[in-house]
Amino acid sequence: MTNWSELGGADAPIQLFARKGKISGVGRTTRKLLFSDYNQEFVASQIFDSTGPLEQAIIDEPNAIAISGISSARKRDVKILELDGKYPSYENVQTGNYLLYRPLYLVFNEASPNAEQIKDFIQFADSEEGRNVIRKNGTVPYLEGLNLMKNKLEESRQARQESGLH
């Protein structure tokens, strides 16, 4: 599809915006979930270095569409689309009913001169107080999102069975 009229919209070209690079959380997850290939290239109308400019461009260009993180997109004047009739609400992500998600990994260099402060931050993020901050921002804390992983493992198991692999 190249025109919004093919989807019942105005006669206007679809502008696909994408984020540069293959290691961003959203880009990497999108490539894996949609294409089963971390190296899949996006064919886009415009490529952006980071999420902020991409999301602002979506606001500025009414015929554009892009994939971005739920947490940051909620803070902007953009329409967030449903997937399989499910909105990416906290509850749908937490229960595993909304499947286009990405985990957030906290990693650091142990040789960093700030390693102790970083460890303290990670411990805070995993504490009840830290998880409350995460929830307050509409994001699912790691331990509460285990249904996501359970669903992905079940999908993988079913795919292996259907293909005859065990």
Task: Characterize the structure shown.
By secondary structure, this protein is mostly helical. The protein has two domains: 4-81, no CATH class; 104-166, no CATH class. The protein has seven helices and three strands. α1 links the parallel β1 (15-19) and β2.
Strand content: 5-15%
Q: Give the strand order, joined by hyphens, for the main sheet.
A: 2-1-3
Mean pLDDT: 85
Spans of at least 5 consecutive residues whose pLDDT stays below 50 are: none
Terminal CA distance = 37 Å
- Count of helical stretches: 7
Number of strands: 3
The helicity comes to 40-55%
Q: Major beta sheet, specifics? A: 3 strands, parallel
Briefly note the structural class of the backbone: mainly alpha
Radius of gyration: 18 Å
Summary of the model, kept short:
The chain is mainly α and 166 residues long.
What are the main properties of this structure?
166 residues; three-stranded parallel β-sheet; 2 domains; globular; 7 helices; mainly alpha; 3 strands
